[in-house]
Every structure is written in C-alpha cells, then in structure tokens.
Amino acid sequence: MLGALAAIYVVHLAAAISPGPAILMAARTGMTEGFARSLWLSVGIGLGATVWAAAALFGLSVLFAMAPAALVALKLAGAAYLIWIALQIWRHAPDPVPVPDGATPRGRGALLWRGLATQLANPKPAVFFGTVFLTFVPPEAPAWVFPVILGIVFVNDAGCAMLIARLFSLEPARRRYLGLKTLFERSFGALLAGLGVKLALT
Q1: Shortest CA distance to 148 belongs to which of 12, 37, 40?
Q2: Fewest 10 Å CB contacts: which of 11, 37, 92, 123?
Q3: Looking at the 3D structure of the chain, how many domains does it have?
Q4: 111: containing domain
Q5: Contact 36, 103 (CB under 8 A)
Q6: pTM of this prediction?
Q7: In this structure, is the dihedral angle defined by the CA atoms of residues 113, 18, 86 and 74, taken in order, positive or negative?
Q8: Which of 165, 79, 68 is nearest to 118 (CA)?
C-alpha cells in the first residue's frame, strides 16, 4: 500500500506543477499581492484539487461516462469563467496599483475563494483524477487510504501554488512587474483567456 501511495504522490505532483490556470493565477497573485496573501489563494487551489479528487474517488468519472453532456457543460462553464477573469485582468491592466506596499483591498476569504473557483472552473483535473489517477488506487484499498490520498492531493496542489507564488513574489520579479504592469497584466490575461478557449475546444 505504501508503494501505491508513493506512486500516487509522484504522478499527482507532476500534474500539480504543470502549467494551467491555477499555476498562472498563483504566479500573478504572488507578483501583484505578495507571498503572504498568495498563501490564501494557494490554500483555495489545494481545496479545489481535493474536491475534484474526492469526486473521482466517489464516482464522478462514472457520471461523466454515463452522461458525456455533463462534462461538456462543465467544460463550457469553466471556460466562460476563466475568460471572464482574463477580460477583467486585461481591462484593468493600465490601472495603478490600488494600495501601496503590496497591500490589497481583497480579504483572505476572497483570495481563498478565487483559488478554489479557479481550480473548480477547470474540469481537466476531473479528467485526470477520473482516469490516470484512479488507476493507481488499489481496488482493495482500506478506508484509511482515502483521506491519506486526499491529503496528498491538497499538499501537492497547495504546495506547488505556494512555490510558484513565492518565486514570483521575490523583489526582482515585483520590480519588473511595477515597471511593466500593463504588459504583464495583459500577458497574464491573454494566457488565461487562451487556456479558457483551449478548455472549451478540447
């Protein structure tokens, strides 16, 4: 059983660190709002991944196999949400930083919700957890294994988001951001919109 858990850890860690909306949002939040505040976004990202993993463990993949239209609807809704965020980022790119010293009017709850919503808006984790991920879960696994697996998922996703946010929150990155805010923000917006369009079309 320990071998299976180790395999789950490694396979999911590779998926968690791969570029996607959550990693992109973690990078932007670290750069614009600092590492301390991006921790709350990272926790939300971890919780979102845990929701998808729990859904897969308890039969979401079966639902999608029986009703493919449900997955299509979920993908379109998620794509629309990501594109909406991208448009907001693009629209406000020229705005000055609203509060000095990296502070922000958004509260911790809003940051946590943004991370959770960004992760849930991307149903690709559901496909990963419902296919590749489940093949590493032994069918005879005892009940204690499932909370351990969910813990692994949370730590991997939240930890990867925190790492990315930390790298982008370092002073050289933040100085470059302040000097080229419009360019950075519109680049982030364009990338996020591209991910949303790709999600809708695949």
Answers
A1: 12
A2: 92
A3: 1
A4: 2-201
A5: no
A6: 0.73
A7: negative
A8: 79
